[in-house]
Amino acid sequence: MGPRAGTVTSILRGKLLDVIGEGPLAAKLQAFFALLDDETGAVANRKLAAKLREYRELSTRQTMLVSRRNSRDTLFVEIINAL
Fold first, then answer.
1. Minimal CA–CA distance to 33: which of 60, 14, 52?
2. DSSP-assigned letters across all residues of the chain
3. Long-range contacts made by residues 50-59, C-beta under 8 angstroms, separation at least 24?
4. Which pLDDT belongs to residue 41?
5. CA 67 to CA 24: how far, in whole Å?
6. Fewer CB near the terminus (10 Å): N or C of the chain?
7. Going residue by residue through the chain (83 aa), what tens digit of pLDDT does each one get?
8. Which sign, positive or negative, has the C-alpha torsion 29, 42, 56, 3?
9. Residue 1: what pLDDT?
10. What is the C-alpha separation between 80 and 28, in angstroms, rounded?
11. What is the pLDDT of residue 3?
């Protein structure tokens, strides 16, 4: 799968479109994907960097396990809200 899989489901479950709005959510998604694509891991905010590392980990193996999927959803919403 990969880190981008499931983001639509996470957006819907977290009601992010309703909470954040279309324009701001689009900007946050662009920032999120840019951070995911950055292999250097150069994120200034340590808490955000830790969440991104965990999100990547949860997205790379055993992605169909419900507990990992739920954790990934939660992290995704937390990361988007932090951006």
1. 52
2. --TTTTHHHHHHHTTHHHHH-HHHHHHHHHHHHHHHH-TT---S-HHHHHHHHHHHHHHHSSTT-HHHHHHHHHHHHHHHHH-
3. 51/75, 51/78, 51/79, 51/82, 52/79, 55/3, 55/79, 56/3, 59/1, 59/2, 59/3, 59/5, 59/6
4. 63
5. 29
6. N
7. 455 656 888 898 888 999 999 999 999 999 999 988 876 666 778 899 899 989 988 888 777 778 888 899 999 999 999 99
8. positive
9. 46
10. 6
11. 53
CB burial of residue 66 (10 Å; 0-12, 13-18, 19+): exposed
Residue type present at position 13: R
Residue type, 1: M
Residues 23-47 as b or e (16 or more Cβ within 10 Å = b): eebeebbeebeebbeeeeeeeeeee
